[in-house]
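Q: I'm writing up a methods section and want to include an example of the input and output format. Could you take the sequence below and give the corresponding predicted structure tokens, formatted cleanly so I can copy it straight into the document?
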Amino acid sequence: MSTSRRAAPLPPEVRRARIIAAALPLLRMHGTAVTTAQIAMAAGIAEGTLFRVFPDKDSLVHAAIATAFETGPTEAEIAAIDRELPLRDKLIAAVEVLQRRVEGVWQLMSMLGMAAPPGVNPLTPRPAPTMETLQHKVVALFEPHRDELRCEPAQAARVLRMMTFAGTHPRIADGVPLTAAEVVAVVLDGIRMRADLDPDSSDPDAEALPC
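A: Here is the clean output for your methods example:
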């Protein structure tokens, strides 16, 4: 007599998350041309099982888009950065995390023909409320180094995020994105060669990027 047992079915939320995780790379590659059969295969399930979780392809695509724009995973990665690292190293690690988000979101929007994130009017864009928490995580990286900055940590974090977006977005960076180290170098040091890096210098031209 066989004692083998069938594996217990996955909880609905776990199955849903797995399907979305399988769908996102395919949506970035194929856009809406991706089929539910391809997604089911990538998720390791039968296509009929997929339709027990999502009533149709459109509902799956909408759920995947919403997941792609969630900031929770990005916030967790930034929060996990070693706070004992020097400021430059912490910021490079943070920019690498932010760049992965920008690249993934842009690729998805491009393949799906999206002009703006969900719920944002492209004619009058406003920062999504969920971005505020992500901003706080970046600010926290600057806070212990307040005495090293020419501006408040919140403004420094804003400049870093703006530079990361501009330096990573393919259409803004002319297809040649800045590396994380380059983004941080511009934010912390500027791009002009100068002998005097002393923030207390009386030379008005010795300042770095305005914050």
